[in-house]
Amino acid sequence: MLDLLEEKEKIKLSMCYAIQIFGKEEMDVDFFMTHLNYLLAHSQIKVKSKKSILRYMNELVEDITKSHLNSSIPLRFDDNRLYININKPILMTHLIVYYLHNSLKYLILFHSFVGRANNAQAMLEEIETDDFSYLPQEIYIETTEVTLRNKLKALNKILALHGFQLDNSYHFVGREINVRMFFYELYFFFMNGVLQSKSYLDTKFGEFIHQTLQEGRDLLEKITVCEQPTENERMGFAIIYGISVLRAMQNYTLSECEIYSSFSKEEFQDKQIQEMFITIKKDFLKRGFSVEVAESESRFLLAYLYTELPRFHLDGKKLFKDIFQMKVNNLWGEFLDFFEQYFDKPFQVQHSILLKEDFKRNFTRFLFFENLGLQRLIAVNYFEDSYRFMTRVLEEFSKRIFQILYPKREESYQKPYVSCYFIYLNYAYCYRILTNIENGEHLFPYFPKVNAVIDFAGTQEKGRYVHLILEKRYGLNLNLQEHTTEETDIVISNILTNDFENTNISTYLWSAFFTDEMIEILAKRIDAIQNEKRRGAN
C-alpha cells in the first residue's frame, strides 16, 4: 500500500507506524533517524537528513490538524519534538485515505477499478471533477496527459509484482484472482474503517458498495456453520464478496483455468460444503448472473473461506480436486525434507500434528491467491527481530517454494513473494506452537543447545527470569549449568568471577540491573552461537 503513495507521504505515514511500534511520549529527530529506515526498507527509501525529518514532523502534525484527525492521532509538535498521549490508540485509517487521495497512482487505480474511464481524456476528467467532499479536508488535483502517462508507468511497475497491470485503456490485464486479492488487501487491511461508512466514500460509488457489503454480511450469516463470525470475519468476507460482485458486473469473470484447475465442476461430496455452495450460487443467480458465473464465483468464495476463515473448519480434501491437493501435499513433504536436511534431525511428530493443517492451508493460499500478503511486508521485520529461532529456516524454505511454484519467474519477482510466504509460514509456526506449550517442553528444540551459566548472587529468581525470557520470548535453546566446564558457551552474572578471564566463553556482567536492550544483545549472541553450532554439526 505504501508504494501507491508519493514519497513524502510514505515517510510521514511511516513516522506514524514508528510512533505506534516504538513510540514514547516525546520523540525527537534522532528517534526517527533510528527507526524510519528500518520501516522504509521495503520501499527503497532512505532518510538521511535531520533537517528533512524535522520538516516532515511538522508537516505530519499540519496534515492531521487540517484533516481534523487530532482525536484519532493526538500528536503535537513543539520545540522540534513530537508529543503524544501513549495511553490513546493511534487510528491511522483516515490519514491513509487522505494520503491515498493525494496520490495520482491511487486515483488512476480507483477509477479503473470502478470502471469509469477507458482513455486518458476520460481519466483526466474523472480525476479533476472528483467529488472529495466526503474527506475531512477538500482536495484539488490538476494534472496533464503527460503526467498521467508517467504515473501509469510507475503504477504498472507496482502492479506487475502483484501479477497484473493496466493497459492504455485502463483495463486490468492479468490473472483476475490477483486483481481481486490486491483490492481486497487494500480495502480490508488499510481502508476498512472507511468502507463501513457511506459518508467517507466517493458519492458515486458509496451507495453501491455500502449496500453490497451489507448483503455480503447477510450472506455470511446464512452460510455460517461455526460460532458467530467475528466483526473482522464479517468485514473481510463482505469486502471480497463486494469485489467479486463488482468485477462480475463489469464482465471480469474468473476463467475456467483459475477455478476448475482447483475445483471440480461436479457437486461437492461433503454435504456441508455443498449446502454452502448452493446458498452462495443462489445469491449470484438472483443478481442476474449466468449459472457458469455464479458457480465459479461460489467456488472462489469457498476457497477464501477455507484459507482466511479457518474457524469454518472446511475440509480441504473435500473442497479441492485430488490433483490440487496433491500439489499441497507435495509442498508439505518438501517442507519436512528441507527441515530434516537443515537441522539433520527429523521434525518432531507432535509438531507435525500441530502444524500440518496450518501449513497446508498456507500452501493453498500460495497456490490459489498467489499475491495475498504482498502489501504487508513490514511484518518481515517483525519476525526477523522477534522470532529469530525459525526465521532463517522459513526464509530459506520460502525461497524453495517460490522456485517450485514459479520456476520461470524473473529474479526481481522473488524477494516480495518469498517475504510473503515467509510471513504466513512464520505466523503458522510461531503462534501455533507458542499456544501449545505442554509440560515445560522446549518450544524449538531443533537448534543445538547453548551451554549457559546464569548465576546472580543474592537472587536465584533473577536468573530464572532471564532464562525464561531467553527461551520463551526468543526461542533460544539453553542448557543450564551450575558451574562452567570446557563445554560452557556463555556466562551471565552480576559478580566478576574468574570465569570472565576465560576468552573461550562469552561473558556478560550485569552488576546492578538489566534492561530489554541488554537482553536483546544477549539474545543475538546466543542465537549466533546456536547457528555456529548447527553449521559445525553439518
Chain-wise SSE layout:
Blueprint: H1 7-22, E1 26-27, H2 29-39, H3 50-66, E2 75-78, E3 81-84, H4 93-100, H5 104-113, H6 120-128, H7 145-160, E4 164-166, E5 172-174, H8 176-190, H9 192-195, H10 203-223, H11 231-249, H12 256-260, H13 271-286, H14 291-308, H15 316-319, H16 322-343, H17 349-368, H18 379-386, H19 388-405, H20 414-434, E6 450-455, H21 460-473, E7 478-480, E8 490-493, E9 506-509, H22 516-537
Parallel strand pairs: 6-7, 6-8, 8-9
Antiparallel strand pairs: 1-3, 2-3, 4-5
Helix pairs in contact: 1-2, 1-3, 2-3, 5-7, 8-11, 10-11, 11-14, 13-14, 16-17, 17-20, 19-20
Question: Would you write up a description of this structure?
Answer:
With 538 residues, this protein is an alpha/beta fold. It folds into four domains: 90 residues, Orthogonal Bundle (Arc Repressor Mutant, subunit A), CATH 1.10.10; 168 residues, no CATH class; 114 residues; 88 residues, Rossmann fold (3-Layer(aba) Sandwich). 58% of the residues lie in helices and 6% in strands. Strands 7-6-8-9 form a four-stranded parallel β-sheet. A hairpin with a 2-residue loop joins strand 2 and strand 3. Helix 10 crosses helix 11. InterPro entries: Mga_HTH (IPR007737). This is Mga helix-turn-helix domain-containing protein. It comes from Pilibacter termitis.
